[in-house]
Structure formats: C-alpha cells, structure tokens
Amino acid sequence: MRTTTFGARLRERRMEKRITLRKFAGMIGVSPTYLSQVEKGHFNPPTANRVRRIAKILGEDADLWIALADRVPEDVDGMVKRHPKDMPELMRLVIGSTPGEFQAIKEAVRNIRKLNVA
C-alpha cells in the first residue's frame, strides 16, 4: 500500500478501479458526501461491515482493510464477548510472536479443530 490512511487508500483504489465516488457510495450504502469526507480524512471510516463490503468490491483482503480502518471484525468482537476471559488471555500469549510462530499456532489450532470434528 502506498498510502497509509484509510481514506487516502480508499480513494486511490477506487480511482484505480475507475469507480465514481457517487457509484461507489451507492454500492456500499452511504452518501457520496460522507464517502468524500472519509476519503479526505475528515470523517472516521465506516463500520466493519461496510469496510468488508468495500474490500469485496475492490477485490482485496477484508481483514487488512478492517485493520486499516481501525475497526475490529464482528466475528472477533463476538468471540471476545462470548469468552471475555479466555480470548484476551490467548491474544496476550501471542504478543511478540514471529510470523513463523503465528503460522505454527494457527496450524496447531486447525489440527485441534480437525480432531474435534472427526
């Protein structure tokens, strides 16, 4: 990503896709005025749901866009609320992990889930 703010990145990608501001606003269910203000950095990014829709339209990873918008994916937020002690603890345990360690942790969880399904 060349730009760092959500709004600037959104404008850049929208224009690369040659989608007008008005059309894009309609596609994600917001007003063109609001979208313009988001792109200029005057308003906060939209909800995680709308950001997910933006990423889909742009053909990009929703989780990366949600992070750029400084939002939390709904499913993650829901998981923390369902497990208010365990999820924060689990997240704290992986703080400082290397990319390789993250990969190993994800694989271990996938393997545990496969065992529980079988």
Features:
about 120 residues, mainly alpha, 434 Repressor (Amino-terminal Domain), 2 domains, about 0% strand
Explain what this protein looks like in three dimensions.
The chain is elongated and about 50 Å long. The chain is built from eight helices and no strands. The longest helix has 19 residues, at 99-117. The chain has 118 residues and is an all-alpha fold. The model has no long low-confidence stretch (mean pLDDT 94). The chain folds into two domains: 6-68, lambda repressor-like DNA-binding domains (434 Repressor (Amino-terminal Domain), Orthogonal Bundle); 83-117, no CATH class. The termini are far apart.
Content of β-strand: under 5%
- What top-tier CATH class of the largest domain fits best? Mainly Alpha
Structural class: mainly alpha
- Name the poorly predicted regions: none
The structural domain count equals 2
Number of helices: 8
The biggest sheet amounts to: none
List the secondary-structure elements in sequence, H or E.
Answer: HHHHHHHH
The gross shape turns out to be: elongated
CATH architecture descriptor text of the largest domain = Orthogonal Bundle
Q: What's a quick, concise take on this entry?
A:
This protein has 118 residues and is mainly α. It contains eight helices and no strands. The longest helix is centred in the last third of the chain and has 19 residues, at 99-117.
List the helices and strands and how they pair.
Layout: H1 6-16, H2 21-28, H3 32-39, H4 48-58, H5 62-68, H6 74-82, H7 86-93, H8 99-117
